[in-house]
Fold:
Amino acid sequence: MSERNREYELLMALSPVASDSEATDLVDSILGYVTDNGGELVERESLGVKRLSFPINDYREGNYVRAVLNMVADNVRGFERTLNANENILVHMVSRI
Structure:
C-alpha cells in the first residue's frame, strides 16, 4: 500500500539574533529536509519578529515563520527531530491540516 502525502502546517519561532538573510538560509535548510524526503513546500510566509508569551532561552522575541507542507506521515517524526536539534529554533508546532 502506498503512502499518502498529507498537508501539514509548520509554525516556528526562530532566534531574533539572526539577520534576515541568516533566517532565510535557516528556513531553506529546514524545508530542504521536506523536499529531500519526497515532500513539497506549498506556501511560506514570514510573520516577522513578535513578542513571545514567555521567555525561551532568555529571548523575549522570536522571528516567526509559517509554512504549509505536503509530506508523508512517516517522515513527520524525523522532521520534528530535525527541528528539535536546531538550536536557532526556539519553539515550533507541526499540525495536520
